[in-house]
């Protein structure tokens, strides 16, 4: 299933060192020798203690900066700069306050130069799918946090990327809103057969949403374990939460993070 | 346990219905109290000088200033002077603001040029701009140009500084978001950085609108035979205190109109901000 031949996104022995902030200080090695590959249509979660280099890994996937060693490949091409195959979603919704919701959803399409009628039609469809139909002409400040994050998801899906990179997208939401958005995301990913790499601090979320969970060590981050979530209902996180083996997976991940050092909540 | 309902429990915030803090509310009572203050002030101005035996050439009563206002309209060409000063203010304000916006944006997108130019800009910012007025009059004569030039110089800084710092403080994640969509440098400027400057720009423009009046008046005080600043010195020379006061009041009105116009445009341009975030409403 995850043989490199079908890999949609692949990290090959990637190491990232950041130049020292002060003169004379050591360079910071954020991640070291990370190799992973995610197959077409697969959803993979990444967990690990904070500061272990998860965001760094994602930013290199998006082409925001280059690895110090190793290579990142997306859809058979080496990633050297940001490219339209990859879209990116953060904990912050990053909606532009001066754009209405529909204009925010269109941002990526507009940057990529698609024509006005085409992008309006596409963003309308996404607005409906993300349950924001009545809010096209609202401005971000008029929406709740959950709705704003839905709009951010719609903006990410609008450019029709092959790979979605998500950095704790729901961690700022309240528990209830979060579950609803997880369900929407899972459904969208399954319907459109998107490939996704999903960072989270929430172990239940990682099991509920993904085919596989990768566990990273403390910095310098390495992948210390890979868990295949062989549960049904990947498109229905509510169903998965009810599954008898859910607790078993969460227990296993908790134990792994303790091995990886005792500071998940540092 | 059954799965929670598939609706977003969070409803949109409605700014219209947000309760307004009682102390910020403009009620009828507030308007009446405010008007009473004006009436009390005018009454004191009218009758106190007489009661305290203050001579008219020191403090003419309100009615005397009103008569002077009526007289100055045909005898002194009050409206011509007001018109000239207004035009200088508008031209100086618009040119100074555009220059401030342009340079602010240019330095904002080019940190290198900011580094190179910042000592000189800082020096120029510290220099008291109105002190340039005599110099400009020496260069450009008794025309409108030195006045406009002082206004440009004085308006430029608050606008430039606000625009520059707005571009500097754009959330880097927003820029990265645009970059992941493969945005060009120009697109990042046009879609992210430039619109981010709008709110600070208008804060700068409010300040600038009142500074423009100061710049123009100082220019007119220094030299020329037109404008309210000239009328001020003329009234002073005649020992006509009432005319001096009429000029001050007209200048204040020009400032109020300029500020009000900026605030009105701001409400139009920044319509996307919650109302509480606009400083006047
Ligand atoms: N641009 C940067 N410059 C220097 N150090 C950085 C930079 N970005 C991240 N780091 C460092 O790399 C490490 C990993 O950061 P990050 O990837 O954000 O961790 P995580 O997302 O897992 O919490 C941290 O120690 C952080 O301080
Ligand atoms: Mg992070």
Approximately what portion of the residues of chain B adopt beta-strand conformation? under 5%
Looking at the overall shape, the CATH architecture of the largest domain in chain B is Orthogonal Bundle
CATH architecture of the largest domain in chain A: 3-Layer(aba) Sandwich
What is the count of structural domains of chain B? 2
CATH superfamily of the largest domain in chain A: P-loop containing nucleotide triphosphate hydrolases
- Please give the radius of gyration of chain A in angstroms: 18 Å
Helix content of chain B: over 70%
Give the helices and strands of chain A as they follow along the chain. Answer: EEEHEEEHHHHEHEHEEHH
CATH superfamily of the largest domain in chain B: MetI-like
**SS element count, helices of chain A:** 9
Shape of chain A: globular
Structure description:
- The complex is a heterodimer of chains A (266) and B (281).
- Chain A has 266 residues and is α/β, with parallel strands linked by helices.
- Chain A has helices at 54-61, 101-105, 107-111, 116-129, 145-158, 175-191, 203-209, 237-242, 246-259, and strands at 7-18, 28-39, 43-47, 69-74, 77-78, 86-89, 163-167, 195-199, 212-216, 223-228.
- Chain A has two domains: 7-85 and 163-263, 3-Layer(aba) Sandwich (Rossmann fold); 94-160, no CATH class.
- In chain A, the strands form two sheets. In chain A, strands 6-7-8-3-9-10 form a six-stranded mixed beta sheet, sandwiched between helices.
- In chain A, 48% of the residues are buried.
- Mean pLDDT of chain B is 89; it is low at 1-21.
- With 281 residues, chain B is mainly α.
- At the A-B interface, strand 6, helix 3, helix 5, helix 6 and helix 8 of A face helix 7 and helix 8 of B.
- Residues 54-55, 167 of chain A line the site of magnesium ion.
Properties at a glance:
heterodimer, A: 266 residues, alpha/beta, Rossmann fold, 10 strands, B: 281 residues, mainly alpha, MetI-like fold, 72% helix, 0% strand, binds adenosine-5'-diphosphate, binds magnesium ion
């Amino acid at each position: 299933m995850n043989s490199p031949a079908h890999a949609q996104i692949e990290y090959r022995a990637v190491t990232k060192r950041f130049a020292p902030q002060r003169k004379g200080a050591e360079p910071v090695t954020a991640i070291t020798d990370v190799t992973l590959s995610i197959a077409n249509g697969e959803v993979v979660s990444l967990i690990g203690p904070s500061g272990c280099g998860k965001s760094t890994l994602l930013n290199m996937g998006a082409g925001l900066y280059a690895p110090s060693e190793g290579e990142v490949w997306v859809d058979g091409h080496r990633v050297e700069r940001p490219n339209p195959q990859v879209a990116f979603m953060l904990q912050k919704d990053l909606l532009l306050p001066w754009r209405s919701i529909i204009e925010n959803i269109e941002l990526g399409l507009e940057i990529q130069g698609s024509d006005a009628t085409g992008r309006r039609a596409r963003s309308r469809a996404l607005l409906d799918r993300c349950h924001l139909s009545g809010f096209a002409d609202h401005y971000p400040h008029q929406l709740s946090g959950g709705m704003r994050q839905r709009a951010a998801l719609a903006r990410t899906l609008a450019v029709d990327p092959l790979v979605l990179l998500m950095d704790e997208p729901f961690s700022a939401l309240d528990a209830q809103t979060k579950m609803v958005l997880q369900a929407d995301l899972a459904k969208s990913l399954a319907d459109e057969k998107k490939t996704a790499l999903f960072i989270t601090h929430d172990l239940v979320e990682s099991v509920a949403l993904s085919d596989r969970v990768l566990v990273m060590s403390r910095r310098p981050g390495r992948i210390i374990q890979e868990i295949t979530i062989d549960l049904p209902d990947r498109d229905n996180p509510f169903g998965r939460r009810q599954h008898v083996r859910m607790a078993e997976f969460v227990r296993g991940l908790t134990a792994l993070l303790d091995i990886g050092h005792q500071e998940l909540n540092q | 346990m059954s799965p929670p309902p598939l609706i977003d429990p969070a409803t949109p915030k409605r700014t219209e219905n947000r309760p307004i803090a009682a102390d910020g509310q403009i009620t009828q009572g507030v308007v009446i109290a405010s008007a009473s203050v004006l009436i009390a002030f005018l009454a004191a101005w009218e009758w106190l000088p007489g009661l305290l035996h203050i001579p008219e050439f020191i403090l003419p009563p309100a009615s005397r200033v009103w008569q002077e206002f009526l007289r100055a309209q045909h005898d002194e060409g009050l409206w011509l002077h007001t018109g000239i000063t207004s035009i200088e203010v508008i031209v100086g304000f618009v040119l100074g603001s555009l220059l401030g916006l342009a340079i602010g944006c240019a330095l904002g997108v080019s940190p290198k040029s900011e580094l190179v130019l910042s000592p000189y800009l800082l020096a120029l910012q510290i220099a008291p701009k109105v002190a340039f007025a005599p110099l400009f009059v020496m260069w450009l004569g008794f025309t409108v140009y030195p006045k406009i030039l002082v206004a440009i110089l004085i308006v430029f800084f608050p606008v430039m500084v606000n625009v520059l710092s707005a571009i500097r403080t754009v959330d880097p994640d927003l820029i990265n978001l645009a970059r992941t969509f493969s945005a060009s440098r120009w697109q990042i400027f046009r879609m992210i950085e430039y619109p981010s400057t709008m709110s600070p720009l208008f804060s700068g423009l409010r300040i600038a609108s009142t500074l423009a009046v100061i710049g123009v008046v100082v220019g007119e005080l220094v030299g020329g035979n037109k404008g309210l600043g000239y009328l001020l010195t003329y009234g002073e020379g005649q020992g006509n205190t009432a005319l001096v006061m009429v000029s001050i009041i007209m200048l204040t009105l020009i400032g109020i109109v300029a500020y009000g116009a900026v605030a009105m445009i701001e409400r139009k341009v920044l319509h996307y901000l919650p109302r509480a975030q606009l400083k006047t409403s």
